[in-house]
Design goal:
alpha/beta, 4-stranded antiparallel β-sheet, 21 strands, binds adenosine-5'-diphosphate, binds zinc ion
């Protein structure tokens, strides 16, 4: 049975949804035009006035906003309400080197919490669940978002934050956590510790809600198997609110974007042209209801595609495919586009776990790429494992996947540092771009 938090809006017929979006968009454009000088200037520059925006069909007339605009407007330039009406600040984790601060009114926080509540219920959560949140708390949105969602559902919330694996496992076993919320890389690290300590029989987990970083289907299977749970994906970004902008339902076939609050578009990142559904491009969001930090046509740099096909779960909101990486995550090595997720797929398909690092360098003006991956404990214990043979096999798989030669080093178990938040998989020593 499908579990909804707000069934009426989650299963609203698309015509009604679009009418609601149009009404909200018209209001939101007026709001930003009247209250944010940045938007007023940009719209005047683009020759668009609020009277030109009569519904979602006019969305394309508005100019885009980029991460650089947010940086230029730091900290208060995009505030849509007086500072005294804001009750919270959150900030990005700074993965791409540029921090962004986002402001929330109490109303904005309520919307965000509701979005996370929908995600928790879609993963089977109820009032009877014990929701174990080990996303980081503080400025990072992961902890506060899922915490707020869990409260709305009425579940017992464990605000663990990240790190201290011993304490995580103690609470998980003593208090019978049933839903685990954290980054997939930390879920994986917890799963390994549970296996090592023989605790699998003592945990009551049934589901996990994992996001904040890219992860592959192969990694999902590994986590599901190791923990004996169903692993759900959740997507979000601080600029748009935080986790819960989109979430997976039990069909696990893409994440439903919460379209009553956020309109997605897919654009060609080079030309800005809006692409038809089904094509891969950069995801752009327009916030319809947020008042304090209302971003319109914000370019996320995340690459993915949308599908408007009806979903088995009955939700009518569009689904986005798992982002394959950010446009700024993509490595260009020897002139070839390389996404870390492609490397992960090859490794996991050959029986390794997601304990790897990619090291890129430039030696004598030539790019080099090296992949370090740990053997699993079983491989290390098997006298028939030959490191060189493993390395050659991985290199062959990577050549087939990427079309370039990769140096591979297979390491002993536990030699690569485990991550408690977002994993740092890529070390690019080339310094081609100066970090800001
Ligand atoms: P930062 O940009 O510093 O990492 P955030 O913590 O707000 O800031 O992270 C948002 C970004 O994290 C998204 O734009 C996206 O690239 C990535 N992300 C979030 N959830 C997922 C997910 N489920 N799958 C892949 N990437 C994700
Ligand atoms: Zn669905």
């Amino acid at each position: 049975m499908t579990n909804y938090y707000q069934k009426e809006i989650e299963t609203i017929p698309r015509e009604e949804l679009e009418a609601l979006q149009s009404e909200r968009l018209v209001q939101q454009v007026k709001h930003v035009y009247e209250n944010v000088k940045f938007y007023r200037d940009r719209m005047i520059e683009a020759g668009v006035s609020p009277s030109d925006i009569n519904g979602i069909q006019d969305l394309h007339k508005l100019p885009f906003i980029t991460k650089d605009d947010l940086k230029d407007q730091y900290p208060y330039g995009l505030l849509g309400v007086p500072l005294k009406d804001c009750v919270r600040i959150q900030s990005t984790s700074g993965t791409t080197g540029k921090r962004v601060v986002a402001f929330y009114t109490q109303g904005d926080l309520d919307i965000w919490d509701e979005c996370c509540a929908r995600a928790i219920m879609a993963a089977g959560g109820t009032k009877k669940d014990v929701v174990h949140v080990c996303y980081g708390y503080g400025l990072f949105t992961g902890g506060p978002g899922l915490n707020g969602g869990s409260h709305k559902v009425g579940s017992l919330t464990l605000p663990m934050s990240s790190g201290n694996t011993d304490r995580q496992l103690q609470f998980m076993t003593d208090l019978g956590s049933t839903i685990l919320c954290c980054t997939p890389s930390y879920a994986f690290s917890l799963a390994e510790s549970i296996e090592e300590r023989g605790l699998k029989g003592k945990i009551k987990l049934k589901a996990g809600i994992f996001g904040a970083e890219p992860w592959t289907e192969e990694m999902r299977k590994d986590i599901e198997e190791l923990l004996g749970i169903k692993a759900y994906d959740i997507y979000g970004l601080t600029e748009i609110s935080g986790p819960g902008v989109a979430f997976e339902c039990e069909a696990q076939a893409g994440m439903h974007i919460q379209e009553d609050h956020f309109i997605p578009e897919i654009i060609n990142p080079k030309t800005g042209e809006v692409l038809p559904a089904g094509e891969v491009g950069e995801l752009v969001f327009t916030c319809l209801t947020k008042k304090a930090f209302p971003l319109l046509r914000y370019r996320t740099r995340d690459l993915c595609k949308l599908t408007y096909e009806p979903c088995k779960c009955g939700r009518t909101h569009v689904r986005m495919r798992k982002p394959m990486g950010r446009s700024d995550d993509m490595l260009i090595v020897k002139g070839v586009n390389v996404f870390p997720s492609q490397i992960e797929t090859v490794l996991i398909n050959q029986g390794y776990r997601a304990n790897y690092q990619i090291i890129v360098d430039r030696i004598n003006n030539r790019d080099t790429i090296e992949v370090h991956v740990e053997m699993t404990p079983e491989m290390a214990a098997d006298p028939n494992t030959y490191k060189e043979a493993c390395e050659a096999k991985i290199a062959k798989g990577l050549l087939a996947m990427l079309g370039i030669k990769v140096n591979v080093k297979v390491l002993k178990p536990k030699t690569i540092t485990r991550s408690e938040g977002k994993a740092k998989r890529v070390i690019d020593k080339r310094n081609l771009y100066t970090q800001q």
